[in-house]
Amino acid sequence: MSFWGDALALSDSRARGHAVVLAYVIAFAVATICHLFDIARGGWLPYKTYAPGLNVFWTSLTFFDPLAIVLLWKRRRAGLGLALLIITVDVAVNLSVGVRELVQSGRFTFWGLATQVPVGVFMWWTAPKLWAAESTYPSRDG
């Protein structure tokens, strides 16, 4: 491939990487807004019908979700690690609580999983490519 062909391929790769990171950022921004609305409606630790540990966990996402956004832009690999940790633990917790609630009451109320699971799959599918891309061109991680 020629110099210009290599430059275009790298440019296309970076553009795709930025688009994928933007998708992560949008997901965490929406999640942050949802948690902020919950706090605005229900006060600090608004998930009072659930165990205190769950309440603290879900409320803590109000801080961890925007931290993931900042890290994704400034320290890509650290942001990827935090993003994968957040989405994995959040889906696992929500699925566990949702299934338990379904078994106990016959109702399933954790419909947010309908978006969280596909977002999590997308993140786990794309994260290795973003991680590898950081070694292709200069990293912000150090």
Structure commentary:
- The structure is a single chain.
- With 142 residues, the protein is an all-alpha fold.
- It is built from 4 helices and no strands.
- The chain has one domain.
- α2 packs antiparallel against α3.
- The protein is elongated and about 50 Å long.
In short:
The protein has 142 residues and is mostly helical. The protein has helices at residues 3-42, 52-74, 76-105, 113-136. It is elongated, with a radius of gyration of 18 Å.
Question: Helix and strand layout, with pairings?
Answer:
Layout (H helix, E strand, L loop, with lengths): L2 H40 L9 H23 L1 H30 L7 H24 L6
Could you tell me the number of beta strands?
0
> Strand fraction band?
under 5%
Uncertain residue ranges: 3-8
Distance between the termini: 30 Å
Mean pLDDT: 89
In helices, the fraction of residues equals over 70%
- What structural class do you assign from the helix and strand content? mainly alpha
Count of helix runs? 4
Q: Major sheet, described briefly? A: none
What's the number of structural domains? 1
Shape: elongated
Order of helices and strands: HHHH
Rg, rounded, reads 18 Å
Please tag this protein with its features.
142 residues; mainly alpha; 4 helices; elongated
